[in-house]
């Protein structure tokens, strides 16, 4: 059904007659105001949403201006509302008011719809709804006020608010108006809180009828007038940010030399901002100064410095643990002669030697204090003197401990040596050390106690009492974020158990197979005499260099191998989670046949709302029975719903959804017409008593039933009981019998003798028919041609002429294009309409509608065919992208359209769309076509307009296609303070379009993504996750999995796709779903500072966690995702991600998470983010250390001297081989991929697939990828250079020339590979022990494999790389 959007009458709604006029040529063109989702300006409009009582209640609440003092200098009339009132007083833009009016109405109306049970008076906006929206919008503001010790300017009388929610509405509307016009300042959330604080105070003065003491007139805002808010509030802050960005020279200057978005924001974390900036903003203050003056405000909160020491500063607890265990293990192994360490610790001397770890620990604390001063000294100013005092005191205290422990330790040993035993005096000095150690580790003991009681730690951190701040001042600086991050006791226990077992296995392995085997060769080498050095002897009469070279690869592997153990343990844990979640239970067609009969019941319990499920089963007994059946269905216990019959409503609902999914497959050309007929679930007809299952499930069932009847010599009852054990067989027999019976009785005239004879025959007659076995036909091009011919195409040549758009769309839907993404996102709109219909439709509507639907569709097709004949045989127009012509839509009652529009819109942030239109770019016409065929699609872009003085003005514009006017219309035009792009382009583009989004949740989608109708049906289930507690918190980001649809394009694309299923993340970015109102007031859905936030997506996860939010991941829903398919594309993508991780390593977010998370969550965070890239680099450095070290030993003569000692030579060689084995353990990082795919598919096919990928040189690709990550990660940390790299998403079929490959890979792979190859060749030539070929291969196999991979991969994976002519040309 097509719902009319015709608008009647003149404009009388809110905003009429107020604000500035539009530019000429804008609007609808007929004097009526264009709307986005709901025509709020015209209550008489024929729009389905206006018929909803919740919408009318929200609109009526905004119109209750009543006795409020009217703004001066504005002609006021009864058609204006509360947002017009705020706009007139505070100087907001007209289109900002219109935009936020609709925004607020939809928020309130949807919130009122979710109240359960519904309010008594649904025509009146419930006070609880307004309060809930206001509290969520202003939660960050009230927390900020509490942090600064200030009283929020939100004056609410709870008793009055229940009956008059007007003040609550004003506060919520004021914040939305500020946010909607803040432009780039939206990235500075606490700055918005500062602005709101002052403007809310002025609002209170107006509401309380204060008198201005200076003028004696009623109080007015300090900032008012036309566009005053943009000009006098936002623009000064914007210009400050812009000048800082200009000073960065496009991000090439050091981060410490200029202020980014975070620095600007953290300036408002101190009460000093109130004294400095005042209100209205004093532009003479040093906050707005950007020249390098003495009083200029510099970095705030954190200084980003380029150094690998950031990894130690951010994760010092990890490195302290590793270093102290290494020292203790070496001491125990060196002085003991037993195999196990606890046997070596039975002697007092060895026990005391282990206490030297406290000397090392104190030195590490001193190092941390020095690094803090060396990197953060620029933060010290007149306002932050205490920070400088704490830095100095920490250095002094750490230096004192570093000096005290060696003194105490040496005095103890001196006493013991003098007494030649552990005398009472020696024990007293030992006690002194133990007491000092206990005092030294007191902070760690306190941290352990607070870990056991996480709620106490959260209370201490989140409470803003000054006494707690004084107590914690020494340990960590006070920041607005990063407080109260501890999880609940159960989740903390799970983390602790996982990491305790992992670390125990790692340390046992390291001691027995890494450290202890090195002790004997080390002692032998140190004791070697008469070594003839052929090079300079660095340490005379000592073989220290040789020992260092031998130990260096061991230590590097020891420091990085937790990454390997984490991959193994996370794979095992993930497998257990997947098994309990029943992941991959339906793996093939056979499993589909076995479980298909449960789908109708699963639909009833999972897709339908709960109140709908129990509408007919109100008694407690029935509810308990339904709950038990639900659990049986979920865990496969028995067959609780195997006898579903056709007269029930469940199968009818399921049939509508299933058939719509199959028709969607047909429109996508995944299946052909014949396969649609085999897959469809036929509706109830002909009095057939069973569900008419798809032919796919009934194949051969009648033949099998007939065979049983022939072979089984038994009575009919026993035969039928045996047939009925197979549900599909039973249904096939009954369907055949009922169909033939109905057909014969309809054909033969009732009342005749023949009719009575046939009726008697059917009492004992069984029959069967042969059903053809089903096979899937996958040729999508043939399916497309078949569909075109069905739509009237007579000759394939038409595809290159009048049907070229169909051809372009078909090709676009198989690439990574905007049209594919739009088509996928519109499935949400389609699914919403279907669910809205199923929720409200009665059993009669569904049953009768399903019965009549085939005849209605057939009649419509006949009419279309006649129309085509009348047109001379011309083909019918291609189906729209929105699937508005869906057959199920014929059953809709009309309200589904309005409900879907209220719940869902899709905003495409196309920043350059305005320029494309101005240049008549064909891509602009294509975008217009997409808007024309998708009613819920909107496009947001930035319009640049030159004024009369040749000044450029910038506007955020939202447009749509008006179906009534049949043209593109402009909905909103909000002026910006200047150019949009100050930071990174992608988050800035998101930010400008964010104000045009609606709803409580927002999903971010890349242009290379897709969606599926069957997955879109689950979105309502996903959004319900916001109501569930995950640990101590409700989620704020819902992560969902991605299905990589480019995996079959090439072998490289398959490798990328294989990695995707085991991608571990805190927040990857798209397509995750955000709690929109939560992020709206906390800086948005990404960060945008130049360079440091180049990986803008993951910073949303960092920001969410630091601000007390929660990120979850859900496997039951997915969207499509396109990946790079060529080596050059993949390398540029991995370079971009590696550079992003390099910048993350320097960031304040990673530093704060490393310090504020508990120890075990910190480990998970490190090894799933920057730690992965750092350990990849460590693995490469291990190879370098190994080959350079072996070359030194060979050329210096030390290796030949060692070789003369057969015992030490064999021990040393064995140790080297152990290290090679550990390096090759890196192959176990493929374990997550194997286990994940085994769960979803099957073990043997996955193993075969894994072996196939190895034959396709997957190991070469992954080794080459390791070099890419290492090069760009290390280079970014040391030198910068991170930038967005356009990888391209096309199909890679073109041969890349040698020159292009060399330019791209020379520094990162070729030069390094050649260097390692030369070293290995020299080692083979000069080494004494590599004369044995087996020994040389065993020692250097991994290194040679890396060399070959780095040099040959660009040529092996180059299209036509082995073509002789192209090779000669290269």
- SS-derived structural category: mainly alpha
Structure summary, number of beta strands? 9
- The rough form would be described as globular
Strand content: under 5%
Describe the structure.
The protein has 1370 residues and is mostly helical. Helices cover 58% and strands 5% of the residues. The chain has 59 helices and 9 strands. The strands form 2 sheets. The protein has a 5-stranded mixed beta sheet. Strands 1-2-3-4 form a 4-stranded mixed beta sheet, with helices on both faces. Strand 3 and strand 4 form a beta hairpin. It is globular and about 120 Å long. The two termini are 62 Å apart. The N terminus is likely disordered.
Write the layout of secondary structure elements.
Elements: H1 53-62, H2 82-90, H3 94-113, H4 127-148, H5 158-163, H6 166-181, H7 189-207, H8 228-247, H9 261-266, H10 272-277, H11 309-314, H12 316-335, H13 341-344, H14 348-353, H15 357-376, H16 385-419, H17 424-440, H18 442-452, H19 454-462, H20 466-472, H21 489-526, H22 544-560, H23 562-580, H24 589-595, H25 599-606, H26 610-613, H27 620-635, H28 649-667, H29 673-679, H30 695-698, H31 701-711, H32 716-723, H33 727-747, H34 753-761, H35 780-790, H36 804-812, H37 818-840, H38 843-870, H39 895-903, E1 906-909, H40 913-918, H41 922-932, E2 937-946, E3 952-962, E4 967-976, H42 985-994, E5 1001-1003, E6 1009-1010, H43 1013-1016, H44 1019-1023, E7 1037-1044, H45 1051-1060, E8 1073-1075, H46 1076-1080, H47 1096-1106, E9 1111-1121, H48 1127-1146, H49 1148-1156, H50 1159-1167, H51 1170-1196, H52 1198-1204, H53 1206-1224, H54 1231-1240, H55 1243-1255, H56 1258-1279, H57 1298-1326, H58 1333-1356, H59 1364-1369
Parallel strand pairs: 1-2, 7-9
Antiparallel strand pairs: 2-3, 3-4, 5-8, 6-9, 7-8
Helix pairs in contact: 1-3, 2-6, 3-6, 4-6, 6-7, 12-15, 12-21, 15-16, 16-17, 21-22, 21-23, 21-53, 22-51, 22-53, 23-54, 25-28, 28-38, 31-33, 37-39, 47-49, 48-56, 51-56, 51-57, 53-58, 54-55, 56-58, 57-58
